[in-house]
């Protein structure tokens, strides 16, 4: 059996299987079995869920923080993500949303949150009306290779 060890700073909170815990001093926790948890630094407040992807993040977060209400949050997720796929034209965001859907369907909610966090900067660019920057093709292009012999 593998264990997971995390370190918390004084005053930091952690959400474990729906319970909120706060430590009064720096401490280490070692989880000896499967557990659903969310660190305070990954928790989004309701007031911060101001964009479509942030709202989706908040819904997935509810599945982790409140296991008793997870079924209701999952139903909301299932109703929400199709409209997001339809609303965004950015291939990067659409692909990322599909990754999140796949993760949530496999009950990998924490990984889904992590994937959503990577999409939020792209969403901000799209919502500002800017184009998503393209990678520098010169840095990834392969040099031409001569084929054939004379």
Automatic annotation (TrEMBL):
Keyword Cytoplasm attributed: no
Keyword Hydrolase: no
Any one GO biological process: bacterial-type flagellum organization
Stored Pfam families: FlbT (PF07378)
Organism domain of life: Bacteria
Gene Ontology MF: a single term: mRNA 5'-UTR binding
Keywords: Bacterial flagellum biogenesis, Cell projection, Cilium, Flagellum, Repressor, RNA-binding
Function in brief: Has a post-transcriptional repressor function in flagellum biogenesis. Associates with the 5'-UTR of fljK mRNA and promotes its degradation.
NCBIfam families assigned: PRK00794.1-1
Family classification: Belongs to the FlbT family.
This protein's name: Probable flagellum biosynthesis repressor protein FlbT
Taxonomic source organism: Aureimonas flava
